[in-house]
Amino acid sequence: MTDTAPARSRHAGAPITDDDATIAAALEDLSVPALMASMVHMTGDPSWIRGELRPQGIFLNEIQGFMSTDDQATVRARALDAIRAYRDGGCVLPPPPGPELVQETMSFLVGEPVPDEYLGLLLEELELDGVDEREVTWPAEATPEARTAFPVVVVGGGMSGILAGIRLGRAGIPYTIVEKNPRVGGTWYENRYPGCRVDVGNHFYCYSFVPDDEWTERFARQPELQAYFEQCAADFDVASHIRFESEVTRAAWDDDVGRWTVTVRSADGGTEDLDAAAVISAVGQLNRPKVPDVPGRDTFAGLAMHSAEWVEGTDLRGKRVAVVGTGASAFQIVPTIAPELEHLTVFQRSAPWMFPNPHYHEAVGPGVPWAIRHLPFYGRWFRFLLFWPACDGGLEAMTVDPDFPDQDRAISAANDGAREVFTAWMAEQVGDDAELLEKVVPDYVCLGKRTLQDNGSWLGALTRDDVDLVTDPIAEVVPEGIVDATGTLHPVDVIVWATGFHANRYLWPMEIVGREGRVLSEQWGDEPTALYGITVPGFPNLFCLYGPGTNLAHGGSMIFHAECQVRYVEEALARLVAAGPGASLECTQEAHDTYNDALQDQMARMVWTHPSIRHSWYRNESGKVHILSPWRLVDYWAWTRAPDPDHFTLVTR
Predict the structure, then answer these.
(1) Which of 545, 564, 644, 553 lies closest to 607 in space, CA to CA?
(2) What residues in the chain have per-residue pLDDT under 50?
(3) What's the half-sphere exposure (Cβ side, CA atoms, 13 Å) at 386?
(4) How far apart are alpha carbons 29 and 378 in whole angstroms?
(5) β-pairing, 489-491 with 511-513?
(6) CB-based contacts of 397, cutoff 8 Å, min separation 6
């Protein structure tokens, strides 16, 4: 149901009526390379990207392309003249650039040729014609009446559940979202600890078809993210389809009629069965907190809480606090709370690798939303500028080069280079404290676990006199605090367990019963697998979003992956509806196995399986990785544009 492209794209910008001073002030906040791309649209003149003034290269979050201050000022002055002429001429756009010029603009922005194989993906992301290409065109056989008779249950009201609801609603499919929390947002509702924020630039971390020009920080904090998803749920009428404070406890497939019975438990303990022609799991991976089974854990006399179960109203001022863990959540919590405490003790099992990002806590200047609203396609090119360096370039440093001589230190020359840069960044901050430097530099290969981004706040906190970093294991918890393996008691008033989630237990604790009585948790065991992370043999009309093998550790964003997956699912639903009542679609064992054999073969070539990594939430109990995607984004995008009929068995009734 793709709409006809409007005469003027919604990204072309609203008319400009501001005075010169207002425009000049706005330009100071902008990415100059993205501004130059916008000027090509505004003026129709490709010389903006063909002259000597150009980005020198690209890196994560480096939105100025390493252009000098003088060069940036020259471009802004020239842009002010062009914008003034555009304003005074009635804001009339010239004909849009053709595909060759668009590709040239892409290559200009990133300082290297953008290969042809990426064009389809990138044009979808840019949406220069104002058409949402990820909205599925349903076949004529899937009549409105047939769609109305095809109810879908979506489990989870987080980012991917809301996305599924948007697409189902626009397709005319009746749906119910079952959400265990009282509000939407998923991880952005549950994680409300101090300092919680996203680690993907927000102008990319939003639905491609729902850009937001109101972000106040480049990496937004939890309240803004929560507000964004709530607004999306309201604007697309998803919220009215959600059953809050309810959980799916069981879903069973009836092969005789080709339907699912989904059992839902409400907050009062009552249960109800929902009839569904298909079930979409949007429960995520990181939503069941994991607290280590430390002796004496329940004897602690103070307040203890997991980072994802932060107790509202907690006042930490003047308290002695222990943060257990040094992963992504701790990385945000520790610098935020340290200045207000009497003392902070951080317990570290293994140190995280981190890379410098001076923009991590940076505010968005008022010129950015102005430009997104008024400068033709500025917002789309800015999104592209964030997307490309976070796309597939990082895979080189994460892929094993078998010819690299010192595999104990690094897996490739690129990997070793990253190690040198990251270590130098840490050493610069720690200074002469050799003992602390030894603690904070990881003893495993670079990029082997989730790599965190740092603007100096993490090590800035650890170098405080009132902060201790403890690397000895925890022996027990006692009423007064935590005792480490040396017998030292660390007295604390509050314990924060920043210890992650049950990441390998997909769809847990639901019981999913498929064809011939198969139980999904038993079929998976400790090695969950699915075709593209979405469909599983023996479980017809069941689709997973953010399923096995789809977590991104090398780039991209989960929203990008979710949009790929939801399109794939919607294409499958369109075929089911067109096939008639009771139809079922199930991926074949052969397709599933071929895909997952290839995934594990590729995984063996990736840094995440390196033997130096002793502890990682990426791995299951036997040390295998079934969580991550080792694929290029462009490949996953291509594979999930539509289901391959050869991968499925379609049964009609």
Answers:
(1) 553
(2) 1-7
(3) 23
(4) 12
(5) unpaired
(6) 412, 414, 415, 417, 418, 446, 447, 607
Q: What is the pLDDT of residues 466-478, one digit of tens each?
A: 999 999 999 999 9
Beta strands in 82-126 (DSSP E): none
Residue-wise pLDDT for 184-235, tens only, equals 999 999 999 999 999 999 999 999 999 988 999 999 999 999 999 999 999 9
Element (H, E) at 76: helix 69-88
Q: Are 249 and 265 in contact (CB under 8 A)?
A: yes
Nearest to 51 by CA among 28, 69, 78: 78
CATH assignment, 297-353+449-497: 3.50.50.60
Collapsed DSSP state (helix, strand, coil) of residue 350: coil
In Å, what is the CA distance from 317 to each residue of 191, 302, 336, 339?
Answer: 20, 15, 12, 9
Please, what's the b/e burial string for 336-345 (b: 16 or more CB within 10 A of its CB; e: otherwise)?
Answer: bbbeebebbb
| 256 Cβ neighbours under 8 A, 6+ residues apart | none
Rounded to an integer, what distance in angstroms lies between the CA atom of residue 411 and that of residue 402?
A: 8
Question: Residue 21: which residues within 8 A CB-CB, separation 6 or more?
Answer: none
Q: Token pair of 649, please? A: 């068995």
Amino acid at 368: V
Backbone angles phi, psi at 179, to 5 degrees: -125, 125
522 contact partners, CB below 8 Å, separation of at least 6:
none
Neighbours of 1 (CB within 10 A): 9
Q: What phi and psi, each to the nearest 5 degrees, are found at residue 255? A: -70, -20
- Which one, of 538, 257, 202, lies nearest residue 369 by Cα? 202
Query: Using CA atoms, how far apart are residues 359 and 63, in angstroms rounded to an integer?
Result: 10
- Superfamily of the domain at 144-288+503-585+626-646: FAD/NAD(P)-binding domain (3.50.50.60)
Q: Which amino acid is at 333?
A: I
Pair 202, 217: CB distance under 8 Å: yes
Rama region for 162: left / alpha / beta (φ>0; ψ in -120 to 50; rest): alpha
CA distance 398 to 390: 13
Question: Domain-by-domain residue ranges, the chain?
Answer: 20-134+368-383, 144-288+503-585+626-646, 297-353+449-497
Domains 144-288+503-585+626-646 and 297-353+449-497 share a fold: yes
- Single-letter code of the amino acid located at 180: K
Summarize pLDDT for 476-535 with one digit per residue, the tens: 999 999 999 999 999 999 999 999 988 788 888 999 999 999 999 999 998 999 999 999
